Amino acid sequence: MGCQHLEDEYELYLLGGLTGPDRDTLELHLTTQCPACLEGVREAAESVYWLVESAEPVRPRPAVKSRLMARLVEPARNAERISAARKR
Amino acid sequence: MPRRAKSATTATATAITDLENLLSQAANGDREAFGGIYDRMAPRILGLIERILGASGPGEQVLEDVFVELWNSSRSLAGGHRSVAAWLTFRARAAALDRLSGGPSRPLRRRDAGSRSSAWVAWLPGAEAIRRMEQRRPLLARILGQLPREQLKAVELVAFEGRAETEIADQLHEPLAKVKAELRAAARFLKHRRRAVVGAWAVNI
What we know:
The complex is a heterodimer. Chain A is mostly helical.
């Protein structure tokens, strides 16, 4: 059997809406490196971005950025911190 | 309360083109560059988070956590061809859905790629593809409104409530086969319309 019936499931799969045998079938098929389906899922990810990103923007309060910037640890220091935490 | 930022749509549409450059600078410790990513993307990302969690939910906390995660991941993400806007969008959705289901947002790990809500990790769109779509953003925004109401409802339950098709059938008291058919028809419609818009400037939506 061909894989054309999977075409309409790519977006659902990426969104987590596909479950059970439908999801298993698609994932198993993707492991065969089917070029059409790999390209289809890649393209579907663009549709999913556009769909999810369609929400109306909301401007955060200025305090959020201040808190965020205060939480940033230099990438190098952060790597050291993670490494130290893993050793503990 | 966070303020609705309708004008931010246009502003960010033209300002996300160099996010990847900014991330490369941030990966070297440039906090100002990272602040630039935040300024351009935060309204969009908070809009998505609040669409999922509601305006009175912990949206700003989730927003903050997602951006901290971007900062901490900047070295591994920078230099690739993946879209920063897409990473933020997909990661924020996953984090908000985690909160919606009652748990704290989980850090993103490679093993998450195999879980139901994290299939996107392996399929993050490229920066160039996102740029092409941003150029057609006003047209794309009109397509969703063209979906039949029942299909749109089902799609929104998947996208913004994290429901699987079996859960949607239960919630809407509809046969599973009907829900499956609606979701697949919606996916087909959106795919074809997006192709038309992204592939041709002159298409009339």
